[in-house]
UniProtKB/TrEMBL annotation:
One Pfam family named in its UniProt record: FGE-sulfatase
Record's protein name: Sulfatase-modifying factor enzyme-like domain-containing protein
Domain Sulfatase-modifying factor enzyme-like: from-to ranges: 155-414
Keywords recorded for this protein, A-Z: Membrane, Transmembrane, Transmembrane helix
Record flagged with keyword Electron transport: no
Record has Membrane as a keyword: yes
Membrane-spanning intervals of the chain: 97-115
Entry's Gene Ontology molecular function annotations: formylglycine-generating oxidase activity
Organism per entry: Leucothrix arctica
């Protein structure tokens, strides 16, 4: 079966409120309202899924009862993605295309994959793995070799990001209520092909393996140029370039599982060239469109977890509510695509050169590498550990020269999707 696109869904505030009421049994659903029908399906599924456990464990019953509208919407959107993209209206064409048993199997498979960890724990690893295989078969993709891991090893762990359509930039009703930058306009629809993206930002351990093998010196280390950091001892904590600051010594404690920092766009390209030769695969930086699509995790909200910033979901704010500096990769929850730290921790370089606005941007998910006007600047995404809440939104973007380096800059790698991954 050929691979097909999914499409991000924007929901209104009214739909959001009605969703919550129906989910919690406080409103009689209108059968002609798609939002009501979807909410009822989620409610019925979760009740059926957790009925036995809920009777025995009050905590589980409470979890179900307080599941937010946004969390529930994500569960259903992920579960119904493969169904809705095959139907002109919900389930109509599906009834003609699949037998009822296949519908039930697919719905259950994708729901299992989309459920939060607190629900997955009821199923066991074998159920999750079987469900992943079912989804892969229906989508015509080879998921073998792609699996989230705890922690980061010597090389980046690549995950498969399924193709889809989404609204890139400042989304109406979500991003704009938090606060958008002028460079996030105009919002525009983009189609993204299936690709691979690293589960984590490149770590100190992974970068050190590259340096040990090649003797590479980062731009900060060459001629002791140094790296930009925040002088916490000076009044006002100004940003300064210090010759002693580099990826080995960012000015704060780091271990092998921390994301490598003080990395320029050029340094990232050097690592990628080595990794490609080392692994026999053509790695690259993600395009800006791929990065935002992956960061949103199939949602239109300002943050992948919902409409408001949450210090339990990302590393930001310079320790006001979270961590003082970088944290180990994977400390904070993953998004729906199993990706960690797509908000905060470090800004991440992407392949695109910098454009001040999205006018004329590609709509096919490719990197935007023309009409750069000789600026010599490249794009970075995601915000860092020092950012305010508005600065870690999925739409946030910034720029820097190819040799710019800072204790706030890192990167993660991408790869075109190819069957029979090595």
């Amino acid at each position: 079966m050929s691979e097909k696109d999914s499409k991000q869904t924007l929901i209104t505030k009214e739909d959001d409120q009605e969703w919550a009421k129906i989910l919690h049994g406080e409103m009689t659903p209108d059968s002609d309202n798609d939002t009501h029908s979807e909410a009822l399906l989620v409610r019925n599924y979760l009740i059926a899924r957790d009925e036995v456990v809920a009777l025995k464990e009050v905590a589980v019953a409470d979890d179900l009862n307080v599941l937010s509208a946004e969390e529930a919407k994500v569960v259903y959107q992920q579960a119904s993605k493969q169904i809705h993209i095959r139907a002109a209206t919900p389930f109509d064409r599906l009834k003609r295309a699949f037998v009822p048993a296949a519908i039930g199997a697919l719905f259950l498979a994708v729901v299992i994959l989309a459920l939060p960890d607190k629900y997955k724990s009821f199923l066991g690893d074998s159920s999750v793995d079987a469900s992943r295989a079912s989804v892969a078969q229906m989508a015509g993709l080879d998921y073998s070799g792609y699996k989230p891991v705890d922690g980061a090893g010597d090389y980046p762990n690549m995950l498969l990001i399924h193709s889809g359509k989404f609204t890139m930039g400042c989304t109406t009703g979500w991003d704009d209520t938090v606060g958008c930058r002028a460079n996030e306009f105009p919002p525009h629809e983009v189609s993204v092909k299936t690709f691979e993206l690293a589960q984590h930002e490149v770590t100190v351990r992974q970068f050190e393996k590259f340096v040990d093998a090649t003797g590479y010196l980062t731009y900060a280390e060459q001629e002791s140029r140094g790296c930009v950091h925040r002088d916490l001892k000076a009044e006002g904590h100004p940003f300064v370039m210090a010759p002693e600051i580099n990826w080995r010594n960012p000015g704060f404690p780091q271990e092998g599982q921390h994301p490598v920092t003080c990395i320029s766009w050029s340094d990232a390209q050097a690592y990628i060239a080595w990794l490609s030769e080392e692994q026999g695969r053509e790695y690259r930086l993600p395009s800006e469109a791929e990065w935002e699509y992956a960061a949103r995790g199939g949602k239109a909200y300002a943050y992948f977890w919902g409409a408001e910033a949450n210090p339990l979901s990302a590393n930001y704010g310079s320790g006001d509510e979270g961590s003082q500096f970088t944290t180990v990769v994977g400390k904070y929850p993953a998004n729906a695509f199993s990706l960690h730290d797509m908000s905060g921790n470090l800004w991440e370089w992407v392949q695109d050169c910098w454009h001040k606005k999205y006018d004329g941007a590609p709509t096919n998910g490719d990197a935007w590498v023309d009409n750069c006007n000789g600026s010599g600047k490249y794009t970075r995404r995601g915000g860092a550990w020092d950012a305010p809440p508005q600065g870690i939104r999925s739409a946030i973007r910034s720029a820097g020269a190819k040799t710019d380096r800072s204790v706030f800059y890192g990167f993660r790698v991408a790869h075109d999707y190819t069957k029979n991954k090595k």
